[in-house]
Amino acid sequence: MALFSRRKKSVDQPAVGEDAAAAEDTTGEVSAQPSAAAPMDAETAAAGEQDAKNAESAVDDAPATEAVPAVGISVQAFRGVGADAGPEVALPADEATASATPPRPAAPVAAARPTSPGDAMPTEQQTVPRLPLAAAVPPEQTHTVDGLNDNVLLREALAELGEGATNEQLIGVMRQSLQSHLYLRVNGDAREQLKNGQPLAVGVIRDGERSFMLAYSSGKALRDSVEGAEDAASTSAIAQPVTAVYQQVVSGGFAGVIIDNSSAPHRAVFPTELLQKALEQGDENMAVKSLLAAPRDEGTPVRVAEALAKTRSWVAVNDGSNGKPVGIAEVHTTDDNRYLQVFSHPLEVVALGRNDRPMPFQPEQLAKVLSDHSEIAGVIVDLGGPSLAIGRDALSALLVLAINVDD
């Protein structure tokens, strides 16, 4: 495990949120024993290090005392598709005066007419896409603290949140969180706890009888959470794949997860029920989403096609109620090529704001559609961004599934 320490020369007192304050501690236990839900033993941690691009780290900061710092928890929460956005963590009655902004309908994404398969992106993405959408090409892999790789897609999505974030914006944050890694704060030495088979004492916020796991998208968000904390010197951190973190929230009795709690207003709460549904609807490793978010080369289309051949994907179905033709959504290019719209997760369909219905497609079904309709030039994956158009010449791993050896 890649571990490093860094000691601060001075510590600034953290500001306490004006809306409310709650006790933050690092006594929540996450099992370090092997489990089907989210193994957290040393072997799994090593695998998590690879998935997180060797970002697993421990950071030490200022001297510790016994006191527990108070932090604000007036955060935006996404409760699921169709629900209002608002504070998930209850505020004291005399301070809960601000209400969340009602959700706004997301702007429909018109069918694009790009000049080539590689440019098969919606018009909005060729300008400045905003949440819940994102740019077609993934952002450059950067870090905000030396030695700690950020989850850049998630970091940038959170940066777009403001006070009174809409449900559509929170959908954008949620879908961008389904790849790469998150950092967890740990009370004590995370490496030693894993080595000794102990439960990880992860950072939590308690709201009455409910507890929320704390997770961080970037080195800066993690650093901000420990600056001024009286127990900072005994705090370390560990990077884990997002799916492992969400599984721990679901199986560990938590009410949800708070991402980047100390970075108001660029933070969000996702309740356990939503995380469980998101995990059920995606593949175990979020392979397609992860490939789309990673740096690209000439082999990327083939790798995405290979992932599509191994896991369920989704298509967007229009039922005709909006006056448009019934069928599966496509993209048409300027040279009259047709590309089937394919999605890694139903949230990707919802984010487009077109009222299409996400429908699951097994690899064999997707292969059959492409095989039966030779006029379709390929697929475009996750139109809301990051997205990728893949021509038939790169879809061999998928198309072979439609071949019947008995014929």
TrEMBL record:
Domain of life the protein comes from: Bacteria
Comp. bias (Low complexity): 15-47, 96-117
Region: Disordered, residue numbers: 1-63, 94-125
Pfam family of the protein (one): SseB
UniProt signal peptide: none
Residue ranges occupied by any SseB protein N-terminal domain in the UniProt entry: 293-395
InterPro entries attached to this UniProt entry: SseB_N
Protein name as it appears in the record: SseB protein N-terminal domain-containing protein
Organism: Microbacterium esteraromaticum
